[in-house]
């Protein structure tokens, strides 16, 4: 089952990957481009995962089963 603390574990992993991209980017005239591109890609992937994860962890609309008959629902629709 998914827990809320996995968000923070992911954040630590992303921070470590970003730090590695910062220090291990190839030296030269394009070093800033390499750093920016790698860190932007890493953060973008994390944000996409985070939004998807949070949308499934706390959905805005509760799912309803449509295959149940009305007398088993306990209330009128």
Automatic annotation (TrEMBL):
Keywords, ordered alphabetically: Hydrogen ion transport, Ion transport, Membrane, Transmembrane, Transmembrane helix, Transport
Any single GO CC term annotated in Swiss-Prot or TrEMBL for this entry: endomembrane system
The keyword Transmembrane helix is assigned to this record: yes
InterPro entries to which the protein is assigned, alphabetical: ATPase_V0-cplx_e1/e2_su
Single GO MF annotation: proton-transporting ATPase activity, rotational mechanism
Subcellular locations according to the entry: Endomembrane system
Keyword Lipid metabolism: no
Membrane topology of this protein: Multi-pass membrane protein
Residues of the signal peptide: none
Gene Ontology terms: biological process: vacuolar acidification
Family named by the database record: Belongs to the V-ATPase e1/e2 subunit family.
Protein name, UniProt field: V-type H+-transporting ATPase subunit H
Organism: Trichoderma gamsii
């Amino acid at each position: 089952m998914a827990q809320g603390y996995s968000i923070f574990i992911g954040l630590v992993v992303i921070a470590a990957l970003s730090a590695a991209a910062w220090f291990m980017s190839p030296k030269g005239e394009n070093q800033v481009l390499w750093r920016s591109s790698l860190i932007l890609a890493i953060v973008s992937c994390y944000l996409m995962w985070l939004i998807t994860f949070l949308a499934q962890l706390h959905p805005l609309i509760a799912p309803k089963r449509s295959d149940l008959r009305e007398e088993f629902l306990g209330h009128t629709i």
